[in-house]
Amino acid sequence: MNSTPDECVNCASALMTDTYLDAEKLQKVALLAGAIQNFTLYRPQMRASGCLPDKNLSSAPCPVSAILISMRVRVLLFGQLKDIVGRQEESLDLESGARLSAVMSHYSGRYPKFQGLNNSIACSINQEYAQGSAILKEGDEVGLLPPVSGGRSKVEELRSEHCAIVREPIDLREIRKNLDHPEDGAALIFDGVVRNNTRGRRTLYLDYEAYESMALSEMEKLAQAALERFKVRDVCLVHRLGRLEIGETSVLIGVASAHRSAAFEACRWLIDTLKKTVPIWKKEYFEDGAVWADGEPFPEEIRINK
Fold it and tell me: 3-state secondary structure string, the chain?
């Protein structure tokens, strides 16, 4: 590479300001960083031989290579993972071009309890499920997601075309009214309520938490998929967050269709899939303590470690 240090820095800086770094650009950045390191390492010999004028590089150590090969991502933790780490959000510095699996390796190394969960955790990048081989970029938002079971959230209400995430009691009558249509032969409602026990232990109340924006997005994907897959006329999915008392509705699914068989199939598929893929978690409170509910395993295709 026949370039001066200043030329290497300028070229690398231009590449790093690109909004998308593909494999070829990342390789160029690595080569430029190596060149700058070589300039720093061999500076005395180069000056002695007259190859490097004093003005080209200051006598202070050159930190540019460290800047060029590092990036920062935002990590969000949920459910029991948040309890293990002791916080819900933090920043993590990684080498440029690092894969998503590097994030898991970081937490597994620092927190032994993570190791037992590696095969059941899913991850997301910018609110989309992603595999461990995915390459991260500066500023990415990484979500570490334990198996979903559907506590606590700051959101008041989020809505999409067919779905909603709310904190207030779910109004079944209003949803049923909006779902009714003269051409339908079936209007089916699934009303998931808080029961008073879990495996023989008396339940006091539940607390639901969600990765809100991603949860709403995943719910809407399910609604669209159900409309296409089962050919029903309309669907509605509503999930409540926060503290729920015994007997209150936590999740409500409505399906309207010309025929009952399609409505039953769509409703069953929606609740079963929601429980597996939508990032909502449930904490159960008993007389003698509280635990995060054991969630259903993520489908194999979205687990970080298959």
Answer: CCCCHHHHHHHHHHHHCCCCCCHHHHHHHHHHHHHHHHHHHCHHHHHHCCCCCHHHCCCCCCCHHHHHCEEEEEEEECHHHHHHHCCCEEEEEEECCCEHHHHHHHHHHHCHHHHCCCCCCEEEECCEEECCCCECCCCCEEEEECCCCCCCCCCCEEECCCEEEECCCCCHHHHHHHHCCCCCCEEEEEEEECCCEECCEEEEEEEEEECHHHHHHHHHHHHHHHHHHHCCCEEEEEEECEEEECCCEEEEEEEEECCHHHHHHHHHHHHHHHHHHCCEEEEEEECCEEEECCCCCCCHHHECCC
241-251: per-residue pLDDT in tens? 999 999 999 99
Q: What angle do CA 208, 237, 293 make, to 5 degrees?
A: 25
Residues of the chain with pLDDT under 50: 1, 9, 14, 16-21, 37, 39-49, 51-68, 150-153
Give, in order, the Cα–Cα distances in Å from 80 to each of 73, 89, 117, 148, 286.
21, 13, 10, 11, 17
Give me the amino acid identity at 189. I
What is the pLDDT at residue 60? Answer: 45
Distance of CA 220 to the CA centre of its chain: 16
Tens digits of residue pLDDT in 27-39: 555 555 555 545 4
What is the C-alpha separation between 37 and 46, in angstroms, rounded? 13
Cα separation, 52 vs 39, whole angstroms: 9
Q: Length of the chain in residues, anyone?
A: 306
Distance, in Å, from the CA atom of 166 to the CA atom of 156, rounded to the nearest integer, reads 6
Closest CA to 294 of 303, 282, 302, 286: 282
Q: Mention every residue, 6+ apart, whose C-beta is less than 8 A from residue 136.
A: 71, 73, 94, 97, 98, 99, 100, 102, 103, 125, 142
